[in-house]
Amino acid sequence: MSLSNNSGNHPQFKRVLSLRDLVIYGIAFMTPIAPAYIYGYAAVSTRGMLSLAYLIAMVAMMFSAYSYGRMAAAFPVAGSTYTYTQRSINPHLGFFAGWAMFMDYVLVPLIVFMVGASYANALVPSIPYWVWVLIIAVVITFINILGIEMAAKTNNILVLFMGLVVVIFVIFCIKAIVGGESANSIISIKPFFHDETFATSAIIAGAAMACFSFLGFDSITTLSEEAINPKDDMWKAAMLACLIGGLLFIVQAYVAQLVWPDVNSFSSADTALFDIAKKAGGAALATIYTIAIIVSTFTAGLTGQASASRLMFSMGRDEVLPKKFFTYVHPRFKTPILNILLMCIISVVGALALPISFVAELMNFGGLTGFMFVNLSVIVYYYFRKKEKKFVRYFLLPALGFLICFYLFINLSALTLKVGFVWLAIGFVYALITTKGFKKKPPIMEGL
Q: Is this model's pTM higher than 0.70 or not?
């Protein structure tokens, strides 16, 4: 029996996604305009050297992106982190990897509903926040139900728009830098290193914060069963999405720092890049940037909801979640419609009941936990189980990815760690009951 193939008795997805679609999907999840979410706080944290923090974070995430790509080549199925850990290390450990990552995927559409509704309400105050939440939820859910091909086409358009806004923002910033009162040079080392304020601890803290912008490249691998050529395209897409996204983040942080050198003088840390956009291009640029932020919530919401629904599908297919519900695929659209609707309900309720700051903190717990499991899976599967003694490829690179993620993980806030481990404890109790004390394996693993 091949673990990477499904029986004809199982529901199937349509293979329609090209390498370009997969890369855009990953970038859409991260969103090209992601620095807007954290710039004010991260710029202060790094003492004006956020570009360096983003560079470090990009390099760190590339190790994990490599590991995701290697595991997707071995197991081109929809479960991503859950599947890789389950089939490489242990089926029960795989459940916990999926359980941790599930929290991350659930929180992504939830937080983008919140952010999108907040900015939309600020732009059109006459429409209440809760109405905007429902509008965003309905649009995203409807597109995902129609199918991943429709979602991919929508993302292509929205990512193109955000990319254009980023380009416009950078051009206006360059114009403001070289044409300003002080006529500064566009070439400067200060966004990467300023000897008067540099502190290693500040840069590390900033890099940990910058990793938030990269959460999402891993979602590409949840679409393995809908990719045209998953074995070749998955690792390329994960690496390219991480690299392209990182370069976009670095450039935005670089020009923003030169336009507004005093990072302690923003009117509000929440809207720091809007202050910079207004200084560089006036109210028109600030408005366009605001619209781009709202658009980013649609791209991240589409990808987050799609990824979570497919992770639940894979766990249902392996019968670690109730199979009948979680593996139902709409006969016409070929999408896990019940999972999508469940995700919509969870996200709407959470968006109306929880604070943004709390949700944002929890995302790092699930994301970093999943990254550690996948890096470890590469080592166990390739280096030890398959005896492929390529030290750098199958041991050193994933080991570095694991250690980097572990270091960032242990530096999460006490509240985040406490709530995250409570979530894992709930999963432990659920698994203990459904596996009869961890004696019962998922049916797909029986006899292996």
A: yes
